[in-house]
Each structure stands twice: as structure tokens, then as C-alpha cells.
Amino acid sequence: MIRAKKSLGQHFLKDKNIAEKIVASLKATTGNILEVGPGTGVLTQFLLRRPEKLKLVEIDRESIAFLRETYPEIRESGIMYQEDFLKMELGNLFGNNSFSIAGNFPYNISSQIFFKVIKYREIIPEVVGMVQKEVAERMVAAPGKKTYGILSVLLQRWYDIEYLFTVDENVFIPPPKVKSAVIRMTRNDRQDMQCDENLFISLVKTTFNQRRKTIRNSIKPLLGDKTYDCSFMGMRPEQLSIEQFIDFTNEIEKIL
Fold first, then answer.
1. End-to-end CA gap in the chain
2. Which pLDDT score is estimated for 1?
3. Tell me, what's the pLDDT at 230?
4. Please, are residues 173 and 193 in contact by the beta-carbon 8 Å criterion?
5. pLDDT for the residue 183
6. Which domains are assigned to the chain?
7. How many of the other CB atoms lie within 10 Å of CB of 194?
8. Which of 10, 74, 146, 149 is spaced 20 to 30 Å from 156 by Cα?
9. What was the pLDDT predicted at 27?
10. How many Å apart are CA 135 and CA 122, to the nearest integer?
11. Is-contact 102 129, C-beta < 8 A?
12. pLDDT digits over 70-129, tens only?
């Protein structure tokens, strides 16, 4: 059996019923699926049964050797990539065609995975995967909630996110110290950012990184010696909707 590596954030799902349920949650309308971090292949075995074209990316050599030995389809078809997903160029992965992503995502890099998805949002219409329950709650949180934050705003700007179901820690090897959850992200119909994207991201991160402060105080480093006032300034970031963050970005851009 493959040894789970703490440095890679590995917790191998052992419950095949849950694995099958995760794979069944994929709509995969593009006909292409990329599995991120297949590990022991608990999702892979069900993905291989689907009609879509499948590719796998895994950084762990031990997992790759195990998968190639266990699944002849993988060994013979060359669908496995030994790479770091966070460093991959995804544009030509399926010949410039769109694809869905599935995975039991390593908990230590799950947010980075989602930020990469945002970068390639025009070719990734769907993501289904396992994350920490706390992360899933942040992803779906609405304005005004304590869990509403950077992930909520940046992901919901481009994706509709569903919390599908909770997963107990005892179905993993080794069991994580937290519960997990399965989410589905579906690309929404928003095309135009309607503001400067880099400034939008900077404002969201700056304000939420000091979420106990009012926006007036948290953005002082961004404004320097410039002065600005509006109705948002006395609020805290969790009170602003995505649309309000967009309006705020456009206002700040005018004075920078």
C-alpha cells in the first residue's frame, strides 16, 4: 500500500461508495476530465468507466508507479502526467478544448488549486472535488457570514458553487483531524470583470486580511497620501457583496 506523505497533504479516501458518488456528481459536458492527485486511484477506477476522455496529473512517484501497475489502461494509454498541477500549463492539455476537473484535493494546496482554476476559467467550466469542510463552507458563504472571505468573493465571481455533502474523517487513510466536504463549481455566465481584475483581487485580499478593521483603515497602505471617502469605508469586508466590491474597485481606480 502507498504510504501517505504529510508533505504532500495526502489523505487517501478508502470508501468506494463515496468515491463513486463524487464521480457521479461530474456533469463533464465538455467530454474531457482531468483528475488532480489520483493517489491510490479510488476515484480513478470510476472515472475510467466513464465515456469522457480522461487525463491524470500526479506529483508523487510512488502513486504513479502504483497506478500504472494497477490499471493497464493508464500504463498503455499515456494519460498520466508526472507534474505539479500548480506549475502546469493547462491551455493545450486537451488540444485547446475545455475540460472538467475532479479530485480528492490535497488539503494544504486546495486554495491554490482553485486560484489556478480561476486563471483558466475560460476552459474549465466545472470542478468537483473533496476539500476540508471549513474550506467548502468558505467557498459557498454569502455576504454577512463569518465564513465569507477571500475564497468566497474570488470564486463566486466566476463560479456557482454547491456544497454537495459532508464526508467523515474516518473514511481516509490516515484520517485527517477535520471533516471534509465535496463541492461542485460550475462556471457562471459572467464574462466581463467590469473592473480592473488585479486591483479587485488586491482590494479583496487587503481588506479580508484585516477583516476586523473597517475598510477605511485596512486600505490606507494602498491609498498612501490620497484621500477618499464613500459609504463602503465604514463597513467591514464581509458586509460587501461581489457587486459592491466591483463598484468599490472602480471608485478606487479613479484616484490611484
1. 57
2. 64
3. 78
4. no
5. 98
6. 6-187 (3.40.50.150), 197-255 (1.10.8)
7. 14
8. 10
9. 95
10. 23
11. yes
12. 999 998 888 999 999 999 999 999 998 999 999 999 988 999 999 999 999 999 999 999
Amino acid at 215: I
Buried/exposed 97-118: b ≥16 CB within 10 Å, e otherwise: ebbbbbbbbbbebbbebbbbbb
- Give the integer Cα–Cα distance in Å for 161 and 248: 24
* 203-240 pLDDT tens trace: 999 999 999 999 999 998 888 888 778 788 899 999 99
Kindly report the length of the chain: 256
Strands (DSSP E) found in 7-52: 12-13, 32-36
Alpha helices in 71-163 (DSSP H): 72-77, 110-119, 133-140, 150-156
Q: Classify strands 159-167 and 180-187 as parallel, antiparallel or unpaired.
A: antiparallel
Q: State the cell numbers at 177.
A: 483531524
Residue 112, pLDDT score: 96
The C-alpha cell at 134 is 471549513
- The span from the CA of 208 to the CA of 230, in Å, is 18
* Chain position carrying cell 463552507: 137
* Range of weakest confidence among 15-29, 139-153, 173-187: 173-187
Contacts 24+ apart (CB under 8 A), 200-204: 200/245, 200/246, 200/249, 201/154, 203/245, 203/248, 203/249, 203/252, 204/150, 204/153, 204/154, 204/237, 204/245
